[in-house]
Design goal:
The chain has one domain. It is about 90% helix and about 0% strand. It is built from 4 helices and no strands. It is elongated and about 75 Å long. The N and C termini lie far apart (about 65 Å).
Length: about 80
């Protein structure tokens, strides 16, 4: 089953014209090169973790803003 999925993913890396005009060895080479490029371009877990940490202060500010808005609404209701 996994082999079928891998094969489907491999075909997605190829252009239709390549399938018609290239031989099997050339197609394998194209697939290998594109997979390597995808892996190289893919952010590492460490990069993703660092990006999450950079977003953390934004989340905190957003939560504070929401809490202030709730307090204002509650205060408005208490005044009326």
């Amino acid at each position: 089953m996994q082999d079928d999925i891998d094969m489907d993913e491999d075909f997605k890396l190829l252009e239709p014209l390549d399938l018609i005009t290239k031989d099997v060895d050339e197609l394998r080479k194209i697939i290998k090169e594109k997979k390597e490029k995808v892996q190289k371009d893919k952010p590492t877990r460490k990069d993703k973790t660092n990006a999450d940490h950079r977003r953390e202060p934004t989340r905190e500010r957003e939560m504070e803003k929401q809490q202030k808005e709730k307090k204002r609404e509650h205060d408005k209701k208490g005044v009326m």
